[in-house]
Amino acid sequence: MASLSTHVLDTGAGQPAEGVAVELWRGEDRIAAGATDGEGRIRELAADLEPGRYRLVFLPPSPFFTRVELEVELGEGHHHVPLLVSPYSCASYRGS
Description:
By secondary structure, this protein is an all-beta fold. The chain has a single domain, classed as Immunoglobulin-like. Helices cover 0% and strands 62% of the residues. The chain has strands at residues 2-10, 15-16, 21-26, 29-35, 41-49, 52-59, 68-74, 77-80, 83-86, 89-92. Strands 1, 2, 5, 8, 9 and 10 form a 6-stranded mixed beta sheet that branches. The protein has a 4-stranded antiparallel beta sheet with strand order 4-3-6-7, with no helix packed on it. A hairpin with a 4-residue loop joins β1 and β2 (15-16).
C-alpha cells in the first residue's frame, strides 16, 4: 500500500502557505481532500492507496497560478510531494 503527504511553501512570502486546498484524484474519482495547516502541511492526505497513477491538485495563493496539477506514480510506501509557489513560479519535487 501507499500513503501520501504534502506541504506548500510560499517562497514569495518566505513562509509556509496556510489554508491551501489540495485534492487527490485517481482517474475521475476524487479520493481525498484537505487544506494545509499553519505549517503549510497536510501530514496525511491519504493512506492505504493502491500503487498507481494519481493527480495532486493544489489551489495555491498566487495571482497567476490558480491551479497546479501534478500527475505522480505512487509505488509501495510513503510519498511526500511538496509544492513551492511564488506569485509567478512554482516547482515540486519528491520529498522524504
